[in-house]
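Troubleshooting log. The previous structure file for this entry was overwritten by mistake, so regenerating from the original sequence record. Sequence copied from the archived sheet and checked twice against the printout by T.R.
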Amino acid sequence: MESIIAKKYAKALMRICNQDTIRQVYVLYAEISTAFNIPKFNTIIHSYAISRESKLALLKSFVSSPMDTSAEKLLELLVKNDRISLLPFVVQELKRIINFQQNTYHANLYSKQELDADSLNNIGQKLGKKLGVALQVHQVISDSIEGIRLEVVDLGIEIAFLRNKFIQELQDFILKKI
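Regenerated output below.
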């Protein structure tokens, strides 16, 4: 639910700002959203005893550089509507928009064994070339996978070579030939 609402805020911001401003807003909001990992910060943000002005001042204090007017207005709007907790989701959505504009996407490679950086770069370059995008591959080590699975969520692509599936297909092929 939060991501749907955050998507609307990010799209509205995208309509009124240019690409450079969107990148600046993303950096500012990313600075603020790191504070959401602190439990005491979350307690303060969700407290009804603390005024909205104080919450807004607290959020602005996390930013090291001056805020753009549209970034400040969106932050004020989030505070006014008690939707401050949507800020990390807005950051994710802004990152997705920036990546889309730059034609850059992130892929997760799930495997049991760790691959070296050269292999990951090679996979990213070759698959990115086939898809016509810039692809950054990040590895996720998972003991539950018997094989390899590459997932590009934003493009809706999943490529998998799993041991169990290969064995099953090999058995089916042999049975059909008999």
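The longest strand covers residues 104-111. Archived copy saved in two places this time.
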